[in-house]
Task: structure prediction
Amino acid sequence: MKQQNPSTFTILLVDDKTENLVSLEHMLEADNRRFLTATSGNEALKIALRHNDIGLIMLDVQMPDMDGYEVARLLQSNPKTKDIAIIFVTAINKEEQYVMRGFEEGAVDYLSKPLDINITRAKVSVFEKLYFYQHELKDAMAEKEKVNKQLERFMYVVAHDLKSPLSGAIGLLALISEDERIQSAPDLKEYMQIVLGATNHLTEMITSMLEYTRHSDMEQTIEDVDVHELVAQLSRLLFPPAHIQIITEGKLPLLHTNKLKLQQVFQNLISNAIKYNDKKDGVITISGADKGEYYEFYVKDNGPGVAKRDTDRIFKLFERADNTGKGEGDGIGLNIFKLLVEEQGGKVWVDSKPGEGSIFYFLWRQQ
Result:
C-alpha cells in the first residue's frame, strides 16, 4: 500500500524548564503542528526512539545530567534518529567555539536566548517546508522504483513469451534456406540470409533482455560499445521502408557503458521515427556531441512533429501525442527511453515543430 505523505509536522521541544517549553510551544503553535516535550536529555532520547515522525528537535544546550551536545551526539549515532533536524536553543555566549561544537555534534541551526519570535518562527517554518519536500521526494522515488520494477517484469514476460516461438521460426527458416530452389536463386538466397541474420539478432536481444531483468544494475555487464556500429546495425535490422532514409552524421563515439540499455534507447527512438513518419521522402538523422561527463545524442526526423502541449506528456507512461495520425502507439516506448536515460543520471528533451518534424535529445553518461 502506498504510504501517504504526512500532513502533520511533529516538533520535539527539549528544555529542563517547563515554563520554557510552554512558552516555545505557544510561540510555534499552528494547525498542522504537533508538539512533544521532554525536560531532560534521557527523556528526549526515549521519545525520539518511540516516534518515527519527528521532523524537528528544538534542543536546549544547558541541561543537568546530559547537556544538549551529548543528546545530539547520541541522536546522530542512532540510525533511527540520525536524520532528524536539530536546532540548538542556548543562552551560552555566541563565541565561535560553542557554535562550531554544536554543528559538529549534528545541529543544523542555532537560536540564542532570549528568543526573537519572528526569527524563531521563520526558521522553524523553513525546516517544516524541507520536511514535507523530503517526504514528497521519497514518495516520488518510491513510485519511480515501482514503475521500474513493473516495466522490468513486463519486459521479462514479453521476452520469455517471444523466445520459444522465435526459436522455432529460426529453425524453420534455416530449413527453408537449404531448399534447392532458394539456393539456386541468388536474390532469394540473399533475402533469406538477411532474414536469418535479423531473427538471430532478435534472439540475442531477447536473451539480453531476460538477463537484464534477472540481475541488478550492479551485476549488469559494462563493456566498450562502438555507438556508430550499434546505430548502423539497428538501422539495418529495423528494416525501414524504401522511402525512409537513415543518416548518421559524423562519427559516433566509443563508450564504456551498458550496451543493452543504450541499444534500447536508440531502438525506441529510431522505431518511433520510422513508424510515425508521414512524408513521401522520410529522413532520420542521428548524431551527437561530446559534452564532457555526458555525450549528447539526438535523433531527428521530418515526421508529423509534436504539439508544444504534448512535449512533456509523451514521456509519461501510456501517453501519446494527439497528432501522430496513427493509433497503434502504446505510450510505453518513450517512457522506457526516459527511464533508461535518467537511470544513469542523464536527461531527455524534445524540440519539435508540428508538420515539420522532431529532434529527440538525450544525455548519456560517459564512463
Observations:
- The mean pLDDT is 81.
- The radius of gyration is 30 Å.
- The longest strand covers residues 282-290.
- The first helix runs from residue 18 to 28.
